Amino acid sequence: MTAKPLLMLHGFAGSPRSWDAVLADAQLGRRPVTPHLPGHGDAPTIAGGFDAVVDHLAAALDPEPHGVVGYSLGARLALGLAVRHPRRVERLLLVGVNPGLDDEAERQARRAWDDAWATRIEAEGMVAFEQAWSALPLFATQAALPADRLEAQRAARLAHDPRRLAWAMRTLGLGRMPSRWSALPDLSPPTALVVGSLDDRYRDIALTMQARSRACHLVVVEGAGHNVPLETPGAMARVLETELSVT
Predict the structure, then answer these.
(1) Contacts of 10 (CB under 8 A, 6+ apart)
(2) Distance of alpha carbon 243 from alpha carbon 18, whole angstroms
(3) Residue 121: which domain range?
(4) Which DSSP symbol is given to 127?
(5) How many structural domains are present in the chain?
(6) How far lies 192's CA from each of 15, 107, 220, in Å?
(7) CA distances from 46 to 42, 128, 168 (A)
(8) Minimal CB count within 10 Å: which of 39, 47, 130, 140?
(9) How high is the pLDDT of residue 245?
(10) Is the confidence at residue 247, as pLDDT, over 60?
(11) What is the CATH number of the domain that holds 55?
């Protein structure tokens, strides 16, 4: 009997290997499916906007329902799958997710931010981008991580093509993602909202999502910041086992 599939979507500038340490420690009884997101690695860009990428991911899935896990950008795409293709999603686990921006002024400001980063990637290249991206306050909790773990993350980022990664920033950024807030009351797959205990901003977002959707429940991972799979892979593995394992 073929194991049930588990689609695992990495974050912006990440790679399928972002999940390696988690999968090495998890007993799930599922078959991991870990693609490069469009614009990352050797994955091509996709014509159209954010939802065209969501539909592209759905079209690549086997017919049966999947467990779906996503981190950050991957979580936003995973949420899009559950909203646009609910029959393809059996269970959902979203790490550090933002369901979108409703306020048009906020959307415009975020689009400008995304576009500025995309232009910087194209103009300065991957080394300068990686240094600046790693210095964002969102990732400050990673400073204490082992050097080999940070170097693996750095190598994964530097392996990307700057033109394709800039496309991903412009196309998949939060400023151009359709807001999913209005879809939350009708969200059907059971959904775990995973946040690090040190990630106050995203914990607040998750609490608001939980209040708006009966399908959602909050899972807080102690000692982690935004990137729970990188910072606490063992704890992330336990969460996967609790939420998504098949016996």
Answers:
(1) 16, 18, 19, 34, 36, 37, 40, 71, 73, 74
(2) 19
(3) 4-244
(4) H
(5) 1
(6) 22, 26, 10
(7) 13, 26, 9
(8) 47
(9) 82
(10) no
(11) 3.40.50.1820
